[in-house]
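Justification of resources, computational component.

The compute hours requested in this renewal are based largely on the per-chain cost of generating structure records like the one below. Each record pairs the submitted sequence with a full structure-token output. That output is archived, and it is also reused by downstream analysis tasks.
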Amino acid sequence: MRIFLFFLLILIPLLTTQCGSENGTESAERHAGRTVQPTHEIQILNEQQDQTVTRVRVALAQTEQERSAGLMDVRQMPFDTGMYFIFDEEAPRSFWMANTPLSLDILFVNREHRIVRIHTRTVPFSERQIRSELPAMYTLEVNAGFVSEYDIREGMYVRLSEAD
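The structure output for this chain reads:
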């Protein structure tokens, strides 16, 4: 009986704080994480730029705030979806996976739209720096496994267009 009362005294305050001022929808949305809303499409082209290897729908990250948020707190994303980071100038880039629950493939792209560095299957929540090593003006983040699924390699090209 004492154990039952003990649990009752602990559970009642926990349940009432869970019910607080937020409704069930807000709570579910917060726990579901952010979602990616693609507005554009990336074509990945072979080294000669004469054949499309695959396409990926992307949300753009163009402002400092959008680039800082990136795919943080995105818990799931369709396989053919990603985020395309656009910088004002070409420079060596460095990313990390802090607060990012998805494993990603990260492609660094130079000003000529050529893929100069690929990192595959990044570790979620890692604070390890993921570097472009070469100057990059763009970065494409896609689900882990996307690069191997489509045999994407350094030296291939990307082309950005509006989504249909």
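The beta strands are 40-45, 52-61, 81-95, 104-109, 115-119, 130-143, 157-162. The chain has a mean pLDDT of 86.
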